[in-house]
Amino acid sequence: xxxxxxxxxxxxxxxxxxxxxxxxxxxxxxxxxxxxxxxxxxxxxxxxxxxxxxxxxxxxxxxxxxxxxxxxxxxxxxxxxxx
Length: 83
Hints:
It is a single chain. With 83 residues, this protein is an all-alpha fold. It has helices spanning 3-35, 41-67.
């Protein structure tokens, strides 16, 4: 499989996480806090904080994945020397 396809696949995966996980985190945290009786501003503030943390975790995971990506250098093709 081409390394370009693999890289684009990982980019798509992390992009989908960046779109969906903050929403899931926000509404999940809001629900959990509501169950414990925390409503109003405190509920929204902690839910937003959790969403921001989830985005930063995804960015960090993407950077770590990129850091440990093997370096595949294509072989150098020497040009023809004309005399």
